[in-house]
Please model this.
Amino acid sequence: MHIHGYAWLGEKTTFDKESLRRPPGSPPTSSSPLDLIERYRASVTDFPITDVPPLQTAHWLMKCASVIRGTWQEPKEAGEWLGLQLHEFAPRFASAGEREETRLAHLRNSAVERLAEGGDVSLGHYLRGTVFHSVALVTCSPNRSSPGLPCPAR
Model:
């Protein structure tokens, strides 16, 4: 098992577009409405390459390797990266309580524990203005919640 890290920074309105965050489902039939067929085609081409966070954390593994921000063998190393991400953006967190050092340390430590148990970690914070920051750590080969998903880095 190894761990991939993902990060995204963007407008909250983009994050709220579920169509960008949902992998393609079953293809529509030839008799489906044209707009449904077009939406399906867009999801097939856009979902794998966009770094907008998927609705399910494990679905990061369905995206191309180019959106991976780091790969680690040990949960502690992945937790250190998560801590760096949190500290980098903490001054911009919309809520003062979310910026507290004790809270950030707790998030990092609990992430390491969760990863050591084979789980995934996904965190998101509103930044000042209309910006949202998302960071995720996803176990790979296999992923506990979606063991059939292959490693995107192979």
Summary: The mean pLDDT is 94. The radius of gyration is 17 Å.
